Amino acid sequence: MGALSMADERIRHVTMPKWGLSMTSGTITEWLVAEGDPVTPGTELAEIDTEKIAGTLESEEQGVLRGIVVPAGSAAPVGGTIAVIAPAEVPDAEIDAAVAQAREQLESGAVETAAGPVVAEAEVGGRTLSYATLGDGADVVVLVHGFGGDKNSWLFVQEPLADGRTVHALDLPGHGASSKDVGDGSLRTLAGAVTGFLDALGIERAHLVGHSLGGAVITAAAAAAPDRVRSLTLVAPAGFGPEVNAGYLRGFVEASTRRELRPHLRQLFADESQVTRQLVDDLLKFKRIDGVQEALKTLLGTLLAGDEQAIDARPLLAEVSAPTAVVWGRRDQVIPVAAPEVFGDDVAFRVVEDAGHMVHMENPAATRQAIESVLGG
């Protein structure tokens, strides 16, 4: 969001976000606010559908939604203005002019495309790690996905977090565009990849955020190198109790067709409609890459001991003094919500209603708030 050119500086434009590296446009399925409604940072503005996933666009501004440029049911390119926000005292004539200018730009195709994350690679321990970066602030945040995920799972969180910060979304070994060699697949090896990534980029200290397996990984990294970590945010983390949906984990690894994979993916979300055909197809394509099945099977041995979790990250967290937050979806069907006391008295613990295991995709605002609650560390 930013100021429209040649208009009152108080008029701010809401643009189609770039959620993920491949997104070029989005369709507004529903406006959640109407013209004339007041908005503040975090207000949910619209539901947007992309080829891969649907998400909710939140306001970054305070004011009044004065004009909708793109109606529900219509699409707009990434970077295109879809609405304008301004204080109530800005004259209607100026709002009308700003809306007309935005529509003209959309119709002519003269839309400045949002740059999106910059993808690069780092060599760590003989492996190539892929990562995507947004922002250039002094504070550094590193986002670490879960088992079977990749850097794109942070698509709704990375962009708003990058305001005034540098935010890297990392592909762990065996995932995304990183090397598929996971070695022994141990928690220590994966944690070493994270600290090695900090070394490769010359990052002295970083805020670490980890989802599921990634939560256990960053806890181990923080315990091994406490001087490198400014804060931890654990998103539905593995390693803090014995219970786990072992059937999901084994089913995800073994599935080789769309029909087999889709039921397992539905267990990741409270809202099963998030599991689009494109999401299923993308994961199947990933699972068919040479080395992926072997990597996933190796990591499955790290995650499971029979039908329970093999990882116990609790003693590792006890060694961490950095500010720590935990956020979890109440309807998590993969790792049940752990008891708050497991994490200690000094840990900020939040449970999000109507969200599942992928709480950072279903409720990115709550996830971002949890992360930002410890960024002063």
Automatic annotation (TrEMBL):
Residues 11-86 form the Lipoyl-binding domain. It comes from the Bacteria. CDD domains: lipoyl_domain (cd06849). GO terms for molecular function: catalytic activity. Pfam families: Abhydrolase_1, Biotin_lipoyl. InterPro entries: AB_hydrolase_1, AB_hydrolase_fold, Biotin_lipoyl, Single_hybrid_motif. PANTHER family: ALPHA/BETA-HYDROLASES SUPERFAMILY PROTEIN (PTHR46438), LIPASE-RELATED (PTHR46438:SF11). This is Acetoin dehydrogenase dihydrolipoyllysine-residue acetyltransferase subunit. It comes from Saccharopolyspora thermophila. The lineage of its organism: Bacteria, Bacillati, Actinomycetota, Actinomycetes, Pseudonocardiales.
